[in-house]
Amino acid sequence: MKKHFYLTGLGITATLFSLLWIVDKPAIASLTSGITQLFSSSTRLAQNIQQPKVNLLLVADLQQISRDSQGKQIVNWKPLGGKATVKSGDVLRFTVTATNAGGKAAKGLIITQPIRQGMVYTLNSATPVPGATLSYSIDNGKTFVTNPQIKVTTNGKVEQRPAPAAAYTNVRWSFSQQLEANANVKTSYLVKVR
């Protein structure tokens, strides 16, 4: 029996939020399970009329593979909207578009995406973005590194090895460059349904 997973609200879902500036330290914008959360390093908020306002758009697409008349494989992406049902083995592409709709540049933008339960990250599928560092977590977002490693014991010897795809829990883009007013940036990654 194939498992079915229901992805609620993954179609064209716009989530709006503002980045709050805390004494020259930006808050961290994070998409978690389709719900935007805002974390900050301080409780003191600086008031500014022209704050950056970053809108996030999360879209999920289902991979569809077909063949042309010569037998060459063609990959297409079908948008998933509303309540979508996917089955074991399906490949999904999640795309996050961050648009700065505010009146000034957004500094220190971080986009974090969880690998949802019942899905496995596809290694090397996260799109590199100019001006952003790509990192991953294998401990539910507690720590992020560019090449996650796990400890493996073989013949009584402990070795560090690259983490398998199933160990990945989050993917993150940390932007060193500011996102100018009215500019946008896209990130994406692939997962496979267990």
Structural notes for this entry:
The structure is a single chain. The chain has strands at 4-7, 13-18, 21-22, 25-26, 28-32, 35-39, 53-67, 73-79, 84-87, 91-100, 110-114, 119-121, 132-137, 149-154, 157-162, 170-175, 184-193. The protein is mainly beta and 194 residues long. It has one domain. The radius of gyration is 19 Å and the shape is globular. The protein starts with a strand and ends with a strand. The relative contact order is 0.22. Mean pLDDT is 80; it is low at 1-49.
List keywords for this structure.
6-stranded antiparallel β-sheet, globular, mainly beta, disordered N terminus, 194 residues, 0% helix, 3-stranded antiparallel β-sheet
The portion of residues forming beta strands comes to over 45%
Number of helices: 0
Structural class comes to mainly beta
Percent helix, as a range, is: under 10%
Describe the largest sheet.
6 strands, antiparallel
Mean pLDDT level: 80
Number of strands: 17
What does the overall shape look like?
globular
The domain count comes to: 1
Order of helices and strands: EEEEEEEEEEEEEEEEE
How far is the N terminus from the C terminus? 13 Å
Uncertain stretches: 1-49
Radius of gyration computed on alpha carbons: 19 Å
